[in-house]
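Problem statement: downstream parser choked on a complex file, so we are re-checking the raw output for the BES run. The parser issue turned out to be on our end (a line-ending mismatch), but while we're here, posting the original submission so the record is complete.
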Amino acid sequence: MKIQISKITELKENISTAILFEKTSDFPSELLDEKEEKYFQEKTEKNQEVVIFKYPYLNFFYKIKDEKIRIIGFEKARKAGAELFKILKQENVGSMQLINSCEENLTLPFLEGLLLACYSFSKYKTEKEDFNLAHVFVLDKNINKQQLKELQILRDAVFFARNLVNEPLSTLTATKLAEEIQSAGDKAGFSVEIFGKQKIKVLKMGGLLAVNKGSIDPPTFSILEWNPKNPVNKKPVILVGKGVVYDTGGLSLKPTANSMDYMKSDMGGAAAVAATIYAVAKAKIPVHVIGLVPATDNRPDGNAYTPGDIITMFDGTTVEIKNTDAEGRLLLADALSYAKKYNPELVIDIATLTGSAVLITSDSGIAAMSNNKNFLNLLKKSGEEVYERLIELPLWEEFSESLKSSVADFNNLGVREGQTSIAGKFLEHFTDYPWIHLDIAGPAFIHDDKGYRIKGGTGTGTRLLFNFLKNFDPGNN
Ligand code: BES
Ligand code: MN
Ligand code: ZN
């Protein structure tokens, strides 16, 4: 389903209407008759935030309370948009107009929530939903066509990420993931280079190859590049995404109860990277961005890598494998080392990396670690704007102690306590540039609908990274 959004300059009649308002007096009075007005007054006097009635067209009034904290007001507007979508679906309303009669420009976040709620992964359902919200007319002189276009690009990007996460392993192997990235590149105009198993072997990406040993499918390493004319940055920004298309844990097999059933989502970082670069290219954002996506599944098999193995990474570091379920850091480390050759301005990796990040953030935030305060602060700001908020964790020296090994440079496990930072510390070893690590194990996949996030893959990271790149200015650092 794809909603068409268009600007209007006059109220339409005989159509369902949603109004964002602060004061009742701001209302376009021609909209309500006496009876309706009375009903409405009664409800709002009782401080009801949302008033809905239908005679015969659906009317939806959303009262904007004076939120002192702007970002909370924005998020409330997104949630209200999602709420409206549910009602439109229930009532089978296929087109509507949206009017903003308050000062604060909440039309965009409201529309964003409405658009993002309009998602379902129904590809494999025999009976498809027949509801279609075809058209939203927007009356708000403060927003322009460009903003509406960008909103639609972002919607497409988030849906692309959600679709990738929701595809199971049987339909999204590492090879298929690379092909999907390639076709997104063709559509949006960014370039894609795909390394297959042979090339990965020649490059000696030992982390990615080790994890892939138990798989019957070859690994891939995709390089995405958006290099516009006159970019604001001389050195590229690099996004690295964990692309574990399925994580069984390998020989250190995950326990069955509830821990493996949604591990198709272990490429949520890769999905966010692909979707962000899709949006950046579509919106022609003037930033030179490169994406690196190492991908494989992690499975037990006759030839699977084993606890006790000592592997040599792309940069020559040796690692003793203590647990094959700590696989993400191995392929990410290779990609982070590979990133050095670009002399990057900044590298951001994004990954469903640790179960302990879920304990910290739940599905409400992202655990972030960085060696660069300025860039991290800018990313935090984007996180607040789009409500994909960051929780900063430290990269204290002490966290690397348990990563020592008596037979290799490191082991891949460390202790349980502080595991999210320990994993971050492991990755840090492979960086020599400004770097941010994002652990999205919590929010990448949800089990129930929550506002504009629909159950399944959420596309977390896409709106965050897009917002960050849109505002990116290396002079800021
Ligand atoms: N993909 C998992 C992390 C994960 C857990 C993502 C739950 C989403 C939800 C990762 O590869 C993993 O297995 N991590 C282990 C590491 C441990 C063995 C050090 C973990 O966190 O349990
Ligand atoms: Mn794992
Ligand atoms: Zn994993």
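For whoever reads this later: The first strand starts at residue 4 and ends at 7.
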